[in-house]
């Protein structure tokens, strides 16, 4: 798992905290809470709303999120066992910062935290620790022990503790309700363009680059591999994808090949091979951090009898992806 910044550190202009006891002063907090896996179009609607409200009351936006994912802790042998997440924690931090969030509180989710009742969460955390001025939640959001807290409960408590409450309506794309579950399904099926539409950004993988396969190097192809940072990171199915690779603030178009992206008990991140071939650079970026943005599934993996056949196929792939909007 990647190392994390300490309390009060920042990603760009977003401050990050890892508990409620070492918070910096946050003026007139406008607060929301949730896992926000994917930071999809629905999540962005909530962030936009809390940012707008915060500006109106000279306050700041706040998201309380959780790591690991609550399902991993509450249902480790059932619903959480085969749950793969759209984002690693580092990716989620990057996306939330880009979305304009001002303050991120990442709570270590434990069985003990899960047993906090909704009224104690409101009274002891949202009011006593954060001094929330307004709480904004997504459609049909529930929280607290046994998910007993909801919009009506928040509104009732708000009148007593003097904070406002707002519920954001469902966000629809192509007449389907956007959810992290729906996006995960699209990615697992290799339907990258559909997933990107739901996300309102390109599905990404962040990680460190290592040397590509010796077989391809022998064929004079400068490829690299990107390492998966977290065991539960969602990876698309085997095949070849059009991608954009960002390394050291430079962007390169290319293709990416995934092998062994199995799901279930037999899946291990060490088995997954993600090989990248940038079309417009002969540089080798081994050891550097990179972000890969997925644009489109191109084809299944093929076997080649020789170097010429492989290079001919790569030229066909290049022709397909050159005109894509990245």
At the first level of CATH, the class of the largest domain is Alpha Beta
Write the CATH architecture name of the largest domain: 3-Layer(aba) Sandwich
Q: What's the arrangement of strands in the largest beta sheet? A: 1-2-5-4-3-6-7
User: Describe the biggest sheet?
Assistant: 7 strands, mixed
Shape: elongated
- The radius of gyration is 22 Å
Q: Based on helices, strands and strand pairing, what is the structural class?
A: alpha/beta
Distinct helical segment count: 10
Q: Would you count the extended β strands for me? A: 15
Q: What is CATH's topology name of the largest domain?
A: Rossmann fold
- Range of helix content: 25-40%
User: Which segments are poorly predicted (pLDDT under 50) over 5 or more consecutive residues?
Assistant: 1-6, 263-268
Q: N-to-C SSE series? A: EEEHEHHEHHEHEEEHHEHEEEEEH
Would you tell me the overall average pLDDT? 86
**CATH superfamily membership of the largest domain:** HUPs
Number of domains: 2
Strand proportion, as a percent range, falls in 25-35%
